[in-house]
Design a protein that fits this description.
Helices cover about 10% and strands about 40% of the residues. The chain is mainly beta and about 425 residues long. The protein has a five-stranded mixed sheet, covered by helices on one side. About 30% of the residues are buried. The N terminus is likely disordered.
Length: about 425
């Protein structure tokens, strides 16, 4: 059974009982005079105060600033034809401009009844209190001045109970997106609950990081004003790297001044309701654990064999690693890899790098290895370094006198 629905019915019942008790107290003349100077009692009328019985259509007033409530004042023994004036004089814990307002501030009593339209105040509740099912109510005092046909003036006031409005978001959660090449994307249908918002009210949603996922940007409140809801769909981006996603939904309440010049404007910042979900996303599996680059197909070096002291090049071929960095190594001191040791493979998977050799006295064999960066796979080949190949010729005098010296000349090709 949905506990949220049960809880909302309990709250609804509490509000209804509270309203009945208030009306009962008013009908027993337990009212008090509001202290606004322009509504002071100016006659010792035998009826005194507490002569107004107040009712609202609908019965509950919600602080959404958008709902126009019909206020009926039952004047009992006051003669028809009397005029009645009303004014919001005390807004309790609400900001003055957000305390609601009335239209048609002067009416004539007919059949012991006077009717006014009352724009609901703006009262945004605390989300945590909604979650804990705590009642959130403010009071608005409306002063009433009645002038009978014989000029007698009587003052009274009635108190309207205003229920808070708000949104509760679903719980924060953790998730991980599908891999980059997955045929479908992971998504979540997220239900938000609303309190006191008129069905059809527009809801705007956004995310803090669109690279992690996208959300339904616009939807409307469904259900009824007392117990509404709306759903948004959050779709994770395949192959995303992970991070913290903040999904925020916002409702903008009406500006009272649009109801009429008798109502004060309320800043936009005071008319916005926010609810957010924190989504902790891990990296997609193919991003968090990427496969190692494929093994090179081959490595070839030119010149090979090579005479010591000369330069050459080595080319590593990896047909599956176009654009990848490929690095070369050689352990021997007689062969040195140039070009920083690494090169980027071209579109055909070929990476070429230069090397130099030292002059050797005898033939040396050096090993050269290539591998994509970060890969355990490699290809290798051997380079033969030969000593310089030359011949020497020595020329000495063929005849020399004893006791004298001479020179021999050595040459090589």
């Amino acid at each position: 059974m949905n506990t949220n629905i049960i809880t909302k019915h309990i709250i609804k019942t509490k509000r209804f009982v509270t309203a009945l008790l208030l009306l009962f107290a008013l009908s027993l003349n337990f009212s008090c005079i509001d202290n606004a100077e322009e509504f002071q009692v100016v006659t010792a009328n035998p009826f005194g105060v507490g002569i107004i019985v107040f009712s609202s259509i609908p019965a509950q007033i919600f602080g959404n600033g958008c709902e126009v409530d019909t206020i009926k004042l039952n004047t009992g023994l006051i003669a028809d034809g009397s005029t009645i004036e009303v004014e919001v004089t005390n807004t309790g814990g609400l900001e003055g401009e957000a305390g609601g307002c009335v239209t048609g501030a002067v009416a004539t009593i007919m059949n012991s009844m006077a009717t006014f339209e009352f724009l609901s105040p703006i009262f945004i509740g605390n989300e945590e209190k909604f979650i804990r099912n705590e009642e959130q109510i403010e009071t608005v005092n409306v002063a009433v001045r009645i002038t009978t046909p014989d000029g007698t003036t009587i003052n009274d006031f009635f108190t309207a109970l205003v229920n808070a409005v708000g949104i509760t978001a679903p719980d924060d959660f953790d998730t991980t997106p599908n891999d980059t090449l997955a045929p479908t994307s992971l998504f979540f249908n997220l239900p938000f609950l609303t309190f006191g918002l008129i069905p059809g009210t527009e809801v705007m949603c956004e995310v803090s990081d669109e690279s992690l996922g996208m959300v339904t940007e616009s939807t409307v409140v469904l259900g009824n004003i007392e117990s509404g809801s709306f759903n948004v769909e959050y779709v994770l981006t395949n192959g995303s790297i992970g991070g913290i996603q903040v999904l925020t939904c916002m409702v903008e309440l009406c500006n009272p001044i649009t109801f009429g010049p008798q109502c004060s404007p309320v800043p936009l910042s005071d008319r916005k309701i926010f609810a957010e979900v924190i989504i902790t996303q891990g990296a997609a599996d193919d991003i968090a654990n990427p496969p190692p680059p494929p093994a090179p197909n081959s490595i070839t070096c030119e010149l090979n064999p090579i005479t010591g002291g000369n330069d050459g090049t080595c080319t590593c071929n990896n047909t599956n690693a176009a654009g990848e960095e490929i690095c070369f190594t050689s352990p021997g001191p007689e062969l040195t890899i140039g070009g920083g040791g690494c090169a980027i493979a071209d579109v055909n998977g070929n990476a070429t790098i230069p090397f130099t050799t030292m002059i050797v006295d005898e033939q040396e064999i050096e090993q050269v290895t290539c591998s994509p960066t970060g890969s355990p796979f490699f290809a290798q080949t051997n380079i033969t370094i030969d000593p310089l190949d030359f011949t020497c010729a020595i020329n000495c005098p063929t005849t020399i006198i004893g006791g004298t010296g001479g020179f021999c000349t050595a040459t090589r090709d």
